[in-house]
Known about the structure:
By secondary structure, the chain is α/β, with parallel strands linked by helices. It has 22 helices and 15 strands. This is Sigma 54-interacting transcriptional regulator. Residues 224-453 form the Sigma-54 factor interaction domain.
Amino acid sequence: MDYPSEKPFENNDHLILERERKVLQEIQKSEREKSFLLDFSNDMTAVRTKDELAAVIKTALRKLDPHGGYVIRCMNPDGKTMTAYLHDPGSSTFDPALMDSVLAEKHPIEDGLQNRILDSNIPLLFNVERELARGNRLSYLELWKNMNFKTMVGIALRNHNSNIGLLWLSIDEINIPILQGICAQISTAISNIVANEQILHYKRQLEEENDYLKEQLTSSFAEIVGSGKAMQEVYRLISLVSSSNSTVLLLGETGTGKELIARAIHNASPRSKKLMIKVNCAAMPASLIESELFGHERGAFTGAVERRIGKFELADHSTLFLDEIGEMPLEAQVKLLRVLQEKEMERVGGKSTIKLNVRVIAATNRDLEAEVKAGRFRSDLYYRLNVFPINLPPLRDRAEDIENLTGFFLSKYSKNAGKKSMRISANALRQLQSYVWPGNVRELEHLIERSVLLATGNVISEVFLSPRSNDNTELAGMLPGRSLEEMERAYIIQVLKRCKGKISGPGGAAEILNIPGNTLHSKMKKLDISKAEYYGE
């Protein structure tokens, strides 16, 4: 009897073993992929910052290809371009200048490559040389050629089915499940990091606005010092306009206290329960003043990564103080005029109209009528602001207030310096009263502060006035070709003018000149000084 050959059984065993080996390899490969993705996922859970994300990605991709490089690009707020977010050139050599240029560039999404990746659910492979040969002269293709990258894989980064960017990867072997798993984790991490950065930015912005409001709240609300005739007129105008919603224009030299008067108007108004908001128009670049005043929408311009509320919105149902309004650029004046006329505005880059209830107080040390004639200030805006002008007198016309102002500042800065209450000697006070004060009240305040710090006792017996500042055109004009008697006559007339014709008593010309009142009368009679020459100006 013939027995069947056993060779077919041997062949079957071989096939079975081969199948088992392949199944085992697939299982091992699957386990390695799972292990890789699990490790990557565990590492990603600790990621909080962009730098931490870069370190985790670099470690993971080095396991896939020790020499490969990558770049992650994220979509810009304009929705039309992408910019590099993270990158690693791997072990390749490259032109640093070209690399920096490409990384800084905004790459259009619709460039023939990136849009195809974003429309695909799987990774796409591109041959660098072939794309260049087709005429795709994209800067990043030129860079990859310079880096000697032959092929590049592009994978979309998505969060909740929305494209947020893409990953370009130089890698020899494409493992679709691995790449898709990596990109899912990266997408989530980037979204979380961006969200955290926005939260931190909002927090800093709120802190800055809170500090601003605290500064406004704790700033000087002290009583306005001065009871002379010039200030009495200012008080009368304040009392007339405070209760209304009319726009006020404060005019006066630098240092005359325009902000203090603005606060007094606000504090006496029905809006006093809310804080007055201040904007210094001279302190901001022309490119930023519109954003500062009217706010901006996210993506309105480079760097506008979120919506920002402007000072007009912040001052809604309150008062907005526009200091140094004469420095505002013409293009911003147009938008300001519209807000004043229409009581509404749009944020920079916005489309919706925002209704406003803001009382505006503007201030300037410029002659706005002259600025209008010179074409530097819009006439229609000037007339809109000049509803209720208040002219603040310079300190040289308030000689009768200098003693009270000096006492106020002495008390304030003695306390700040931790010294006992200080006083000023009669001689030093006469120095202050005979000074021209080009810097007005602010100059007096700074002088008293400096004098308090320099004083060794509790009496200021001498003040150190700036000779250069004390020079003025009127005094300088006395010198050439004049006799001593003519100079004395002119100086007495000048002092009498500053004292509003007051000859004797506190704040009178005799006290400033440090001579008895009857002596001054005699000099005036001798020099033939008439009342018309010094009184009534």
